[in-house]
UniProtKB/TrEMBL annotation:
Gene3D superfamilies: 3.10.450.60, Lipoxygenase-1, Domain 5
Annotated keywords: Dioxygenase, Iron, Metal-binding, Oxidoreductase
Species assigned in the record: Aldrovandia affinis
Record-stated family: Belongs to the lipoxygenase family.
Residues at which Fe cation binds: 311, 316, 488, 610
Protein name: Lipoxygenase domain-containing protein
Length: 610
């Protein structure tokens, strides 16, 4: 059903009490998975039953436009729809699941469980299959070449380091360098973890007296804002599993970094959250092998958080909710037409990921240190931390205190794209809504936001459940578009570059974190994953980094959308701005040894397609 304007006003601006609210018991972190057909929210498009109890029309554009129900009743299509209804064996509706403590998602065993218009197009499907066979063949050759062999020294890993990208080759030569290690927190494929270290911020995790013994001026450095921290607390006390019958191990490290005139240098690493005699603080002053192993443990932990949280949860799963909520709007609704392209292929690619990567028997249970169910626990913990502000780049940067951090290309490129999207959305929204009241009265827009509030943000108090003004609508829509394009590109496009050289992102560790600093190269090699596990990690990273053949860049819209009155002028203006951003990035990349182009507008898609 729809919100009426009277209903929304009755419940106030926050609209906490409404027909789409979930009870607290449905949002707890324990309990059974709940599955429903989306009917009241009517997430059907051009196929499938329409069962809304009420209909509504928006009059902010050129008169009213038909709702989905009205559009589906056009007589000229009756015979075709009648015929398809009786011969089709494919589903005509989305089945929605909400696992307690996680954003909701579409239930399905494969992409063909979706309505037909949401499937992969033929070219996309062919490309995925072709790339899969290519990568499987490469993996087979690597495996045959290394049959019966084991790692003895680090250079042995080059025996599987075939078909690398130029950036991967650079990493294989520079991964031990402290400055390069620090740069990955800024311009790697997980650039959203780092934040400023303040005097009142969890300083008991690494005792100050320990730090002062190592760095006598550490307090002064903290006060002047040159110390930053990356904390993997979300991995603390997770159940550890096995790979090929052998136990694997996890850490939950804390990394302190210091900004110098030109670089960001790691100065301290503690493997576990609680300090103790068997949990030493590693520094660059230690034995080289001990310091290197500590950094490898950080890269292992970063791999987990990057893939499950920064990538899967914060882009794929949130993007899925955004699309489902948008999909419930009438086809001709101007905001629906603006946002529909942000969900292209998102549902089928997410179904594929859930059934190959994070399912029981999938990659994370077979080739990482996670015991059965640990991946879901990480996702639940991370979901608790997601806020609306954390998905809005300007607010996120301010919260983390990284506005002035040097050489932070992710921030610079991200803000340029955020501003370009915001300007574009502002032009479209102001063309659609003549006043704030028009926004408030748009029942379909309010329904979309409430759906995301319930099933995406899980009714968190600091997340919007309605939009009151055009300004709020502009920011909200910008957040959706940025998450599904630029943010996803930043955490997706560099995966093979970063992880092809296994020690820079091992998928698991075979020995527990060191309790002392007497580390040898043998200790390092006996901790890193074996050849077969390494090959599986390389295979996944390569597959997820593939370039699409049916690429649709940010800013490109179908002709029927691009020529609409409220889109005709904003789209070319948006595309011109994106081109200018791309040219600026190109100039910078020519001057960089390790060029950061993961957020180049010409290399990012309009939606989450892989």
């Amino acid at each position: 059903m729809f919100f009426s304007t009277e209903t929304l006003k009755q419940h106030g601006k926050e609209a906490h009490s409404n027909p789409f609210s979930l009870g607290n018991e449905e949002l707890s972190l324990t309990g059974e998975m709940k599955t429903d057909e989306i009917q009241g929210f009517s997430v059907f498009n051009k196929v499938g039953p329409r069962r809304r109890a009420q209909t509504a029309k928006l009059t902010t554009l050129e008169g009213s436009y038909p709702t989905k129900e009205e559009a589906s009743s056009i007589p000229s299509s009756f015979i075709l729809r009648f015929f398809l209804r009786f011969i089709s064996i494919f589903p005509e509706k989305l089945n929605f699941t909400h696992k307690p403590g996680l954003p909701g998602f579409v239930k399905g065993g494969n992409p063909f469980d979706l309505p037909k218009e949401l499937w992969f197009e033929t070219l996309k499907l062919i490309t995925l299959v072709k790339n899969a066979f290519k990568i499987l063949a490469q993996t087979l050759f690597r495996r045959l070449w290394n049959t019966g062999r084991k790692w003895v020294k680090i250079e042995d890993i080059r025996r599987v380091f075939w078909f690398p990208s130029k950036k991967a080759v650079y990493i294989s030569c520079n991964w031990k360098n402290d400055a390069f290690f620090g740069s990955l927190f800024l311009n790697g494929c997980n650039p959203i973890m780092i934040k400023k270290y303040t005097e009142d911020q969890d300083q008991q995790k690494i005792p100050m007296e320990t730090l002062e013994k190592l760095y006598p001026d550490i307090k002064e450095s903290i006060r002047n804002g040159s110390i930053y921290v990356v904390d993997y607390a979300i991995l603390d006390d997770l159940p550890e599993g096995e790979v090929n019958g052998y136990p694997q191990f996890l850490a939950a490290p804390i990394v302190l970094l210091q900004e110098t005139k030109e670089e960001l240098i790691p100065i301290a690493i503690q493997m576990k959250q609680r300090s103790g005699v068997d949990n030493p603080v590693f520094t660059p002053k230690d034995k080289p092998e001990a310091w290197l192993l500590a950094k490898i443990w950080v890269r292992n932990s970063d791999f987990y958080i990057h893939e499950l949280v920064s990538h899967l949860l914060r882009t794929h799963l949130m993007g899925e909710i955004f699309f489902i909520a948008n999909y419930s709007m009438a086809d001709q609704h101007p905001i629906s037409r603006l946002l529909r392209t942000t969900g292209r292929y998102t549902l089928p690619i997410n179904i594929t990921a859930r059934n190959t990567l994070i399912n029981e028997g999938g990659f994370f249970t077979e080739y990482t240190a996670f015991k059965k169910g640990a991946q879901w626990e990480v996702l639940k913990r991370a979901t608790e931390e997601i806020t609306y502000q954390s998905l809005c780049l300007p607010d996120n940067l301010k919260y983390r205190g990284v506005e002035d951090l040097k050489n932070y290309a992710y921030r610079d490129d991200g803000m340029a794209i955020w501003d370009a999207i915001k300007e574009f959305v502002e032009d479209v929204v102001n063309g659609c809504y003549k006043s704030d009241e028009d926004v408030w009265k748009d029942t379909e827009l309010q329904q979309m936001v409430m759906y995301i509030y319930n099933f995406g943000f899980l009714q968190k108090k600091d997340c919007p459940s309605s939009l009151q003004t055009r300004e709020e609508a502009i920011k909200y829509i910008t957040m959706i578009m940025f998450t599904c394009s630029a943010q996803h590109a930043s955490v997706n496009n560099g995966q093979y570059d970063i992880y092809a050289w296994m020690p820079n992102g091992p998928t698991t560790m075979r020995k527990p974190p060191p309790k002392d600093k007497e580390v040898t190269e043998h200790d390092i090699m006996s901790t890193l994953p074996e050849i077969d596990t390494t090959l599986e990690g390389m295979k996944v990273a390569r597959f997820l980094s593939q370039e699409p053949q049916d690429f649709v860049p940010l800013g490109k819209y179908p002709e029927e959308v691009a020529f609409e009155r409220h889109m005709r002028d904003p789209i070319p203006k948006f595309q011109k701005k994106l081109k200018e951003i791309g040219e600026k990035i190109d100039k910078r990349c020519h001057l960089q040894e390790f060029p950061y182009d993961y957020m180049h507008p010409g290399k990012m898609e309009n939606s989450i397609t892989i």
